[in-house]
UniProtKB/TrEMBL annotation:
<keyword id="KW-0443">Lipid metabolism</keyword>
<dbReference type="InterPro" id="IPR018376">
    <property type="entry name" value="Enoyl-CoA_hyd/isom_CS"/>
</dbReference>
<comment type="similarity">
    <text>Belongs to the enoyl-CoA hydratase/isomerase family.</text>
</comment>
<dbReference type="GO" id="GO:0004165">
    <property type="term" value="F:delta(3)-delta(2)-enoyl-CoA isomerase activity"/>
</dbReference>
<keyword id="KW-0007">Acetylation</keyword>
<dbReference type="InterPro" id="IPR029045">
    <property type="entry name" value="ClpP/crotonase-like_dom_sf"/>
</dbReference>
<comment type="subunit">
    <text>Homotrimer.</text>
</comment>
<keyword id="KW-0809">Transit peptide</keyword>
<keyword id="KW-0276">Fatty acid metabolism</keyword>
<protein>
    <recommendedName>
        <fullName>Enoyl-CoA delta isomerase 1, mitochondrial</fullName>
        <ecNumber>5.3.3.8</ecNumber>
    </recommendedName>
</protein>
<comment type="pathway">
    <text>Lipid metabolism; fatty acid beta-oxidation.</text>
</comment>
<keyword id="KW-0413">Isomerase</keyword>
<keyword id="KW-0496">Mitochondrion</keyword>
<dbReference type="GO" id="GO:0006635">
    <property type="term" value="P:fatty acid beta-oxidation"/>
</dbReference>
<comment type="function">
    <text>Key enzyme of fatty acid beta-oxidation. Able to isomerize both 3-cis (3Z) and 3-trans (3E) double bonds into the 2-trans (2E) form in a range of enoyl-CoA species, with a preference for (3Z)-enoyl-CoAs over (3E)-enoyl-CoAs. The catalytic efficiency of this enzyme is not affected by the fatty acyl chain length.</text>
</comment>
<dbReference type="Pfam" id="PF00378">
    <property type="entry name" value="ECH_1"/>
</dbReference>
<dbReference type="GO" id="GO:0005759">
    <property type="term" value="C:mitochondrial matrix"/>
</dbReference>
Amino acid sequence: MKMRNPPVNSLSLEFLTELLISLEKLENDKTFRGIIITSDCPGIFSAGLDLLEMYGRDPAHCAEYWKAVQELWLRVYLSNLVVIGAINGISPAGGCLLSLSCDYRVLANNPKYAIGLNETLLGIIAPFWFKDVLVNTIGHRAAERALQLGFLFPPSDALQVGIVDQVVPEDQVQSTARSVMAQWLAIPDHARQLTKNLVRKPTADRLLQQRDADIQNFVRFISRDSIQKSLHVYLEKLKQKKG
Ligand SMILES: CCCCCCCCCCCCC/C=C/C(=O)SCCNC(=O)CCNC(=O)[C@H](O)C(C)(C)COP(=O)(O)OP(=O)(O)OC[C@H]1O[C@@H](n2cnc3c(N)ncnc32)[C@H](O)[C@@H]1OP(=O)(O)O
């Protein structure tokens, strides 16, 4: 599955909806047993959630957007398919969450391809379920530091902390992902799926038990003047970077 939402594969409402529909189709087609998620945007896996869906929008839109973000996460995280991330570009925040929700992550060895939950650098916070997935992946102490400081790990650090499983030369990302897929597909589906569910369900359940409250918290938080100002400053910085 090659994500294509130029220029930066930001997860807009429209793009999230497209991803959801594609995933649903693949899940329902019993000829598919696994997917490799990668990017068609050179150097960028995904720039994360689309900031323009959260900036200057009314509460109803923010609520609709957040529901779609929850939906995509639950679908990828709990997918019955084997999900391998072939991460061929930078993947901050929501892009990192998407990667963390795969069963296995292969990252291209390019110092520009940093990965992490950098929300604090934007003056916002990672929701509890983003945090839970990171803690599950790299452990409590490493997650505590990474989240507070908004670390974006370059490949060597990413491998060391365990946020990715493998770092390979850029031209070997897809072939490595395919080899890994073959290894995972050698396991009987029912046994692998039940085991995945056993490991992941408690984390997903924490959100499932309070989805509406999570949406309301998001809307309240993102609508604050101070948060809207932080987003404005960050978006301006992105513009200025271009010169
Ligand atoms: C009591 C408390 C209760 C709390 C309750 C819960 C609260 C929950 C709070 C909220 C949670 C939100 C979680 C957020 C998750 C996210 O994912 S936020 C997004 C994070 N992403 C980033 O920080 C990446 C930003 N982008 C970049 O760093 C760069 O763009 C890039 C990806 C490295 C690519 O660089 P380059 O190739 O140089 O391209 P640019 O010129 O920078 O960008 C091209 C255009 O794209 C626009 N853009 C970039 N990223 C985004 C984005 N994420 N969303 C929207 N738009 C983006 C960029 O502005 C450029 O636009 P133009 O200038 O119009 O061309």
